[in-house]
TrEMBL record:
PANTHER family given in the database record: GRANULIN, PROGRANULIN
Organism: Arion vulgaris
Coiled-coil segments: none
Main location: secreted
Family under the similarity heading: Belongs to the granulin family.
Compartment(s) of residence: Secreted
Gene: ORF79173
Pfam short name (any one): Granulin
Ranges annotated as spanning the membrane: none
Keyword hit for Cytoplasm: no
Name the UniProt record assigns to this protein: Granulins domain-containing protein
C-alpha cells in the first residue's frame, strides 16, 4: 500500500476515533480530512456513501434521543422447554419458577394475574403489583404512570411473558417418574423402572422390556413379533418426583413455597420459602419481613416491597399402590393417611395425616390433642382447626 493511501486510512481512523454522536460532528470531521483527496473518482464515491450513512445514523440517533431519553428497551420472548428425552437443554441455565415452569437464564420469575408465573427479561427484577409488569433491580414500580423510578431516573417498565412448563414426564404408580416417551415397568425390587419405549412390553424377569406388540423371550434375551426378532432393552431406575411442601391439612404446595392458612380455613401457597403469613389470610411476605396490612406492603427496616398473594394449594394426588389397610382388611386409606373409626356407624374413615389422633368425629395431627369443645387441635398454645375424616374405599378397589 502506498503512502498516500496510508494517509487516507490514518485520517479516516482519526475521524472515526473522535466521532461525536450527539452533535453529529462526524460529518464535519470527515469532510475536513477528506476534502483534498476528493479529486479521485473512487474516493468521491466513498465519501458520498460515508456522508449519507453518517447523516442517516445521526438523524436516527437524534430522533431516538428526542423521543425516548433515558428509556430502557428490552425485547421479551417466551420461556423455553427442556428436552428430557435427549437430555439437551435449550438454555445454558434455565431459571426454575416455584410452580416448576421455566424462564430463560438471566430472567426473573414473577407471578401473573392468572396465578401462573411469567418471565421478566431482567435478573433480580422487581415484580410490579399489577402482576403484569416488572422493573430493573433497585427501581420502584409506579403503577399509575407505568414507569420504573429510582430517584430522578425514570424508565419504562417491562411486560412479563408467560413461563412455560418443563416437558411432561410419565408418572409411575409409585409416584416416581420417567422421561416422556418412556414406559414404567416394575423392577424386582418392587420399585419402578423406565423402559425407553412408549407403551412397552414389560418382561417377566423385571429387568428388560420389549417394543409394543412384541413378546419377551426370556430364554434367548430377545423380543419377538412373528419372524422379527430384536434384542430386548434394559430398564433404568425411575426418578422420584420433585418434592413438594405438604400443608397441615394434607394439601401440598410446590417446592420452595410456604403453606399459609386462608380465610376459608384451607391452606394456600406463598411462593417464597419460610415466608411470613400475613394476618389478612390472603397475602404473605418474604422471610424476616413484616406485613403492613394497612399499606399492603412488606417492611424490613427501611426496605418496603409489595406483598404477595397466596395461591390455593392442591390436593395430594391419590395413589392406590401404597395404601394403609384398616383393621379387618376390609377397607383401606390412601398412603400417608390414618384409619379412624367413625361414630355411630363404627366404620372406618380416613384422616389425611400419618399417625393421626382420632377424635370423636374428627382427627388431629400427631402430637396434638382433640379439643371437642372448640373443635380444634391443640398443642401448647398452638391451635389448629380439626379435620373431618373422609370415607374409606373398599379393599376390592385397591389396584
Amino acid at each position: 500500500i502506498d503512502s498516500q493511501k496510508l494517509k487516507i486510512l490514518f485520517h479516516f481512523c482519526s475521524a472515526v476515533k473522535t466521532w461525536e454522536v450527539n452533535s453529529c460532528n462526524a460529518q464535519l470531521h470527515l469532510h475536513k480530512h477528506f476534502h483534498f483527496y476528493s479529486s479521485k473518482m473512487f474516493l468521491k464515491s466513498l465519501l458520498i456513501l460515508l456522508f449519507i450513512t453518517a447523516s442517516a445514523m445521526c438523524m436516527n440517533l437524534n430522533s431516538d434521543q428526542k423521543k425516548s431519553k433515558d428509556v430502557l428497551y428490552f425485547e421479551t420472548h417466551d420461556a423455553h422447554k427442556v428436552d428430557k428425552i435427549n437430555n439437551k437443554k435449550v438454555l445454558a441455565e434455565a431459571v426454575v419458577c416455584p410452580d416448576g415452569s421455566e424462564c430463560p437464564d438471566g430472567n426473573t420469575c414473577c407471578l401473573l394475574t392468572s396465578g401462573d408465573y411469567g418471565c421478566c427479561p431482567l435478573p433480580d427484577a422487581v415484580c410490579c403489583s399489577d402482576h403484569a409488569h416488572c422493573c430493573p433491580n433497585g427501581y420502584i414500580c409506579d403503577v399509575s404512570a407505568g414507569t420504573c423510578n429510582k430517584g430522578t431516573n425514570v424508565v419504562s417498565w417491562l411486560t412479563k411473558v408467560a413461563a412455560k412448563p418443563v416437558k411432561d414426564t410419565v408418572e409411575c404408580k409409585d409416584g416416581s417418574e420417567c422421561p416422556s416417551g418412556n414406559s414404567c415397568c416394575q423392577l424386582a425390587s418392587g420399585q419402578f423402572g423406565c423402559c425407553p419405549l412408549e407403551q412397552a412390553e414389560c418382561c417377566s424377569d423385571h429387568i428388560h422390556c420389549c417394543p409394543n406388540g412384541y413378546t419377551c423371550d426370556t430364554t434367548t434375551g430377545t423380543c419377538s413379533l412373528g419372524t422379527n426378532v430384536v434384542s430386548w432393552l434394559t430398564k433404568t431406575e425411575a426418578k422420584p418426583v420433585k418434592t413438594s411442601v405438604t400443608c397441615e391439612d394434607g394439601t401440598e404446595c410446590p417446592d420452595g413455597n410456604t403453606c399459609c392458612q386462608l380465610g376459608s380455613g384451607e391452606y394456600g401457597c406463598c411462593p417464597l420459602p419460610q415466608a411470613e403469613c400475613c394476618s389478612d389470610q390472603i397475602h404473605c411476605c418474604p422471610e424476616d419481613y413484616q406485613c403492613d396490612v394497612s399499606a399492603g406492603t412488606c417492611t424490613h427496616g427501611n426496605n418496603v416491597i409489595t406483598w404477595l398473594m397466596k395461591q390455593p394449594s392442591r390436593p395430594v394426588k391419590k395413589s392406590n399402590v401404597n395404601t394403609v389397610v384398616c383393621p379387618g382388611a376390609e377397607a383401606f386409606c390412601p398412603d400417608g393417611n390414618s384409619c379412624c373409626k367413625m361414630y355411630p356407624t363404627q366404620a372406618y374413615g380416613c384422616c389425611p395425616f400419618p399417625k393421626a389422633v382420632c377424635c370423636f368425629l374428627h382427627c388431629c395431627p400427631e402430637g396434638y390433642t382433640c379439643n371437642n369443645q372448640f373443635g380444634t387441635c391443640d398443642k401448647g398454645t398452638h391451635a389448629l382447626p380439626w379435620l373431618t375424616r373422609q370415607p374409606i374405599m373398599p379393599a376390592a378397589n385397591n389396584v
